[in-house]
Amino acid sequence: MTAEFVRLEVADGVGTIRLDRAKAMNAISIQVQDELALAAAEATDRSDVRAVVVWGGEKVFAAGNDVKEMADMSYTDMVDRVQKLQDAVNAVARIPKPVVAAVNGYALGGGCELALAADVRFAADNAVLGQPEVLLGIIPGAGGTQRLPRLVGPSKAKDLLYTGRFVKAEEALAIGLVDRVVPAADVYAEAVAWASKFATAAPYALRAIKETVDRGLEVDIETGLQVERHSFAAIFATGDSRTGMQSFIENGPGKATFEGR
Ligand code: CAA
């Protein structure tokens, strides 16, 4: 099946998960959710993808889940669907490679939640983020009640979640909701430049860092440190750890050429 609204474009080690449903402001319909999960799985599986950019194009990141589609859904319809919605966003969060969201324009509701699933967020100076679900009489269902407070802290998250207000790029930067603000025309190129740094890096070390940080955030510090001990010892089984340390001894820091194994 050819995806209609979400595709993976790969160039020079960087995979771009491109949302492209311009007529509906990239609203994340059920079809978009399913295509997003497939694109994330492809980005995970392909060894020529070493880092990922999530991008909705120059005008809008995503204005949220498709309200027109959701409006007709019952409680039991949503019981049956919400796991798949979360699976799609989780599939992005669990890509075992560096992931950056490049946000132009609106990232609202499910769109903001998709951006939260990335490791870092670069925003255009015209970006507007928020969780306006409460204004629809509903709540976030794609991770917003969980990832937002973990990122910006519970009180700032509750302010945004309770009010549904829109946050402009400058405030988003100040509260840590985004990591970098750049001119709108540059946000995708900046994200690709960040992702490109990892095209020749040691992929299993990056993977272990991501898994260890993300697992550690969910558990007490002693358990997190135990996870780190296992990950640290395990990384010594990779060829790249041999190459990296030997290269340092022979040629100094930062000169290793990794084979990615
Ligand atoms: N779902 C479906 N359609 C949407 C949409 C959405 N989330 N957001 C925008 N659209 C549609 C509009 O209905 C409109 O369609 P028509 O041309 O057919 O009328 C078109 O996109 C353009 O939108 P506007 O005319 O409203 O454009 P605007 O520039 O005046 O406003 C906006 C843009 C501020 C993004 C506004 O459209 C808006 O507030 N959208 C809804 C945002 C929202 O509530 N998102 C949360 C959804 S719920 C959710 O995501 C649940 C979850 O946690 C998973």
Q: Main beta sheet: strand number and arrangement?
A: 6 strands, mixed
**Oligomer description:** single chain
Radius of gyration: 19 Å
Structural class: alpha/beta
Distance between the termini: 32 Å
Bin the helical content: 40-55%
Strand runs, count: 9
Strand order of the largest sheet: 1-2-3-4-6-9
Q: Number of helical segments?
A: 11
List the secondary-structure elements in sequence, H or E. EEHEHHEEHEEHHEHEHHHH
Coarse morphology: globular
Q: Give the averaged pLDDT, no decimals.
A: 98
Low-confidence stretches: none
| β-sheet strand percentage | 5-15%
What ligands does this structure carry?
A: acetoacetyl-coenzyme A
What can you tell me about this protein's structure?
The protein is α/β, with parallel strands linked by helices and about 260 residues long. About 50% of the residues lie in helices and about 15% in strands. The protein contains eleven helices and nine strands. The chain has helices at about 30-45, 65-70, 75-95, 110-115, 145-150, 155-165, 170-175, 185-195, 205-215, 220-235, 240-250; strands at about 5-10, 15-20, 50-55, 100-105, 105-110, 120-125, 130, 165-170, 180. It has a six-stranded mixed sheet, sandwiched between helices. β1 and β2 form a beta hairpin. α1 packs parallel to α3 (about 75-95), α5 (about 145-150) crosses α6 (about 155-165) and α9 (about 205-215) runs antiparallel to α10 (about 220-235). The radius of gyration is 19 Å and the shape is globular. The relative contact order is 0.12. The model has no long low-confidence stretch (mean pLDDT about 100). The structure holds acetoacetyl-coenzyme A.
